[in-house]
């Protein structure tokens, strides 16, 4: 995007000519686009769960309801309120990431129970999908921030469920590769076009697919996931085929190796 300025040039108080300045404002233009995209995403994403909280509470206030109906509505209200919390946390996370103020409290953590916990919480809500866990390794301890690792698997498993049809199968494969622990999150969903793969981890990016526009989201999840994985000296990659499915692979350095390196360093002293 180019912006052209023209200015009159004077010499000895006499009009002498014009100068045209062409300035490339692509960057400013993109930032503006992103800001308005952000505002519309945020308002839309916050409005949807809020509308259901308001709608259901209003119903409960104004109507005599049977206990089972009450429980059903309360469950919806609870889930939508939780969604609001997680949306707001995502916005805050992105802001902290950008300010370089995200903090990590790392301890030796076993990843396997963390993954199991996340799967369990999903099975409660997404009972229409099957989530399988396959483990091909005994030691799954890494040096990491538990809550942040939960966020990583939570986001990836939610996406696998969200972007595949009801009844879809999600497979989580845990294995070792050299000094790393690898976790594949594989779905048989809508897949990702090749030319979108590079932008997936950019904040606010969502694949522009008319089917997909019906699926809510902010485009922040994967940007947050990438940042967290990087902060753990790990990596995330994706392989995907449209209409076949996607596999996201998280790689994290195994703690055994970290421990060994520390011992070697101590020995060398
Ligand atoms: P959100 O899901 O809120 O839009 P994410 O950052 O988690 O944001 O993902 C960015 C985009 O990547 C999504 O909008 C979607 O287009 C695509 N995507 C992510 N995970 C998958 C998946 N498992 N299958 C297909 N597309 C995916």
From TrEMBL:
Domain Histidine kinase: 41-256
Subcellular location: Cell membrane
Domain of life of the source: Bacteria
Protein name: histidine kinase
Native source species: Priestia iocasae
Residues of the full protein shown: 551 to 819 of 956
